[in-house]
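Duplicate of #3305? Posting structure anyway:
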């Protein structure tokens, strides 16, 4: 590897060759131009790290060459050293952008030392810029990972950001199933992978090795690896696979895999990949924990809404929803009906067959109610053996039909644990019709349904009664 490339622009060919030979001895690559115009063209063609030019040149002066190099944004990073005579103005060379100047007569050792020093500085600055760019990329990816708590989004970030930073042909995140036979593509930079999301692990030797050692596996040239050479049919690829360390592996282990054609990965790129995949493993761990907490929270929220025995809504949650439906009925001018159901002679079931039989009866009633209702209807346990049903956008006739359907379903059901005894239910219905100004709130509507239920039980049970408001002037 050379220490850099120098373009020598002098009008003396022998002097230029002597300098080139001396620089070559020091591991520095050189090219020569003998006039200003040729030298300027060589900057674009040869892409040198440093230009050594004489102030006095045929066709175009060295100062003009320097000025044009520094004005071109593609070449302004090129270091320019100007050779001056003893009587030349040193300030003029710096004014046109030269990085430094040397005074003739030249001392070869001094010239070589100056060029080596500038090349070293340039290399150091380039490395520092590369380090800063790499650090900025790592920080940017780190922020994305830190603020993402969805596993699928994290998979996408890992693959696409690394692929963008390292310019690879293929970049995938694989989940290897617990059997170790197949791998599923969780994320990929290639849309074609969506057509074939499942891969055989026998076609991925480096992934198998990666899982077996639990370490990164890097193959610089697949042609030199018998297994990979066979898989890639003699083509030249560089392949890198590394496991993502996560504690949650019940669904399979995650492996990050990159492929680049012909050109190997550099040491810096491999370290970059290690840093990012380590961060990604931590981010996926956090996302998994967050998703588990979300699931647990959703389960607890659902449990908090339900009656533990019958699995219908509990009284507290049902009243919250009834308040919402009542407000919607008022706002939209739509009817709202409710039903109160009471299991007839429930105490006798408990007394004659035991409380377990009574509980089983209530569980079956809850199931029958759920099966008899629409998706937008609500049912909950009102208390003891009573259930409350909420029927949005349902008028009195509609509520009567639903109540009769429920009454028949209960009467025809064969309840377990009660012998041959027939279980029946009484229902009271109440409705808030559009424009109703007398039913002022949920409590009033429930009171109407309760009055209708009392009438149903008082008139023989196993029936449906719809609340009818008393005629004007008649007290109830």
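Output from current build:
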């Amino acid at each position: 590897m050379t220490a850099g490339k120098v373009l020598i622009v002098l009008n003396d060919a022998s002097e230029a060759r002597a300098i080139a030979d001396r620089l070559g001895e020091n591991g520095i690559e050189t090219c020569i131009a003998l006039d200003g115009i040729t030298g300027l063209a060589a900057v674009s063609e040869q892409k040198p790290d440093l230009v050594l030019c004489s102030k006095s040149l045929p066709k175009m002066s060295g100062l003009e060459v320097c000025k044009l190099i520094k004005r071109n944004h593609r070449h302004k990073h090129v270091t320019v050293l100007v050779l001056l005579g003893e009587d030349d103005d040193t300030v003029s060379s710096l004014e046109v952008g030269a990085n430094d100047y040397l005074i003739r007569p030249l001392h070869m050792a001094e010239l070589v030392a100056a060029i080596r020093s500038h090349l070293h500085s340039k290399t150091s600055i380039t490395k520092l810029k590369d380090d800063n760019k790499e650090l900025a990329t790592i920080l940017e990816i780190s922020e994305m990972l830190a603020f993402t708590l969805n596993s699928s989004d994290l998979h996408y970030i890992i693959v696409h950001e690394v692929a963008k930073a390292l310019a690879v042909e293929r970049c995938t995140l694989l989940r290897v199933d617990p059997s170790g036979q197949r791998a599923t593509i969780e994320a990929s930079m290639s849309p074609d992978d969506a057509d074939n999301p499942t891969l055989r692990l026998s076609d991925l030797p480096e992934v198998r090795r990666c899982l077996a050692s639990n370490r990164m596996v890097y193959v610089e040239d697949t042609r030199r690896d018998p297994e990979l050479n066979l898989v890639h049919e003699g083509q030249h690829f560089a392949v890198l696979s590394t496991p993502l360390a996560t504690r949650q592996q019940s669904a399979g282990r995650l492996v990050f895999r990159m492929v680049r054609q012909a050109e190997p990965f550099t040491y810096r790129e491999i370290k970059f990949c290690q840093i990012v995949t380590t961060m990604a493993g931590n981010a996926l761990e956090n996302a998994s924990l967050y998703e588990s907490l979300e699931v647990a929270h959703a389960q607890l929220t659902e449990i908090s809404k339900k009656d533990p025995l019958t699995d219908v809504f509990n009284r507290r949650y049902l009243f919250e929803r009834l308040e919402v439906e009542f407000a919607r009925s008022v706002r939209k001018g739509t009817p709202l009906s409710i039903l109160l159901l009471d299991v007839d002679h429930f105490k006798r079931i408990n007394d004659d067959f035991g409380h377990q039989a009574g509980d089983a009866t209530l569980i079956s009633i809850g199931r029958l109610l759920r099966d008899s209702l629409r998706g937008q209807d609500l049912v909950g346990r009102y208390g003891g053996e009573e259930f409350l049903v909420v029927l949005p956008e349902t008028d009195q006739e509609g509520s009567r039909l639903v109540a009769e359907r429920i009454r028949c379903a209960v009467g025809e059901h064969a309840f377990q644990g009660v012998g041959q005894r027939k279980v029946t239910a009484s229902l009271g219905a109440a409705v808030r019709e559009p424009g109703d100004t007398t039913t002022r709130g949920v409590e009033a509507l429930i009171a109407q349904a309760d009055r209708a239920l009392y009438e149903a039980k008082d008139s023989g049970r196993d029936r449906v009664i719809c609340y009818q408001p008393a005629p004007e002037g008649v007290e109830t």
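Confirmed duplicate; merging threads. The first strand starts at residue 5 and ends at 9. The chain has a mean pLDDT of 88.
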